[in-house]
Amino acid sequence: MTWLASIQAANLLATIVAIPLLSRALLPVGFGDVMFALAVATFLSLICDYGFGWSGLQTAAKHRDDPLVLKRVFSAIMAAKLLLLLLCAALTAAILAVPSVHANRQLIAIASLSTVGSVLMPSWYLQGIERIHVLACALIPARLAGLIAILAFVRSPDDAALATFLMAFPPLLAGVVALAFVRRSLNGFLRPATAEILAHLKQGGSIFLSTLSMGAYTTALTIIVGALGGPVSAGYYAAAERCLAALKAVLGTVAQAALPRVAHLSSTEPQRGIELIRQLARYAPLLLVPSAIAFLCARQLAWLIFGDDFVAGVAPLFRILAPIPILLAFSACFANLYMFNYGWRRCWSRMLLISSALSIVSMILLHLVIPVEQAAAAGALAAEAVVCLVSSLAFLKDRPRWRRPASLL
Questions:
Q1: Domain boundaries, the chain
Q2: What is the signed CA dihedral for 202, 203, 206, 209, rounded to 10 degrees?
């Protein structure tokens, strides 16, 4: 868990430091162009990752003591991811052919390096066999090197292409290093049978739409904002959204740390698992503090983090997004921990799909009456509110299970 926390800390540091540096150097137009390109690459990465982050991890963990089975599983999943990469290459070509993105073609092409990196990165496998230290040793130095390079070389809006490269290349470099380790540990790869590839695609397919919807509304909204409102609007929204993503990373680490214990208790002592979730939920109101700060000090925060050029556009977004921290805190307990482990997985999947669709539809309708970046923020708020409401109701429905054994924390 220490290595996993180190990776999350490195990603959080990259966000906290890199985004203010880029926003001040590139100004809203250049920053928006870069964020739009990276959002396209992130969306394509979600497609390439498919559901293997869950299904592949579980399979690798199950067969961790059987090297031959591990080699077959790894080879088949990597072959499937390469096929998905070819699909994404075709999607990228189609995106580049759209007239409205012609100005960003170079940046999107550069950003796609991170998509290749996500395909090569065997994080699911290394987590499954509990070799997280390899992932950390590959990813953390690459992230830090990219951050230092941004600090040293990105100075003006003319450096947008360089900034995109320095954001996209570290995942590719880390993926190559980690893949080399896996290849050596498995003594090479196998040529998988078509049936094996299809079997893993089928296994991951049940999770794919859920994982896609979990990240789609953030990346998709940035893309839509850029397409409808231009680079300045995309820059404003991406700036506010990256602050929210940093908070999500912190809450995600807490939920990830509790997930194995809740998953175990759900099958062995379900009442104790529910009590653990309930105890964690008691800390959720603490997130009212960042929510209040974001609402009451929006202009000051926007100026402090992004500079004068972003205050007018980002401050209203901070106010719209202010309730999300408290919503995320309850959702982490009731959606990620409870619904996923206590027989609500199908409902969990549908809930994520509906909330993602709601965010996009709300944004498209609202942009007719308010600025597009504010419409996107309202859509994000609607999505998080739905997840929090539905997951809380699911938890309340099982109130008879709330017994009080000795403290678990």
A1: 2-206, 244-401
A2: -80
Describe the chain by its helix, strand, coil percentages, rounded to 5. Answer: 90, 0, 10
Cα distances from 259 to residues 252, 277, 280, in angstroms, run 10, 10, 12
d(CA 401, CA 10): 39
Letter for the amino acid at 221?
Answer: L
How distant, in Å, are the alpha carbons of 20, 103, 376 from that of 230? 20, 11, 13
Tokens of residue 13, six digits: 């540091």
Q: What is the largest CA-CA distance in the chain?
A: 63
How far, in Å, CA of 330 to CA of 322, rounded? 15
* Measured distance CA(261)–CA(332) in Å, rounded: 15
CA distance 122 to 284: 33
Per-residue pLDDT tens, the chain, 409 aa: give them. 567 667 777 777 777 888 899 999 999 999 999 999 999 999 899 899 887 877 787 788 778 788 888 899 999 999 999 999 999 999 888 888 877 777 788 999 999 999 999 999 998 888 888 788 888 888 889 989 999 999 999 999 999 999 999 999 999 999 999 999 999 888 888 888 888 888 888 887 767 877 777 666 678 888 889 888 888 999 999 999 888 887 777 777 677 667 767 777 777 788 888 888 888 888 888 889 989 999 999 999 999 999 899 999 999 999 999 999 899 989 988 988 888 778 787 888 788 888 888 888 999 899 999 999 999 999 999 999 999 999 999 888 766 555 554 444 4
Task: Please name which of 105, 134, 114, 136 lies closest in space to residue 46, comparing C-alpha atoms.
Answer: 114
Question: Sign of torsion, CA 253 254 256 257?
Answer: positive
The pTM assigned to this predicted structure is: 0.84
Q: How many CB atoms are closer than 10 A to CB 208?
A: 19
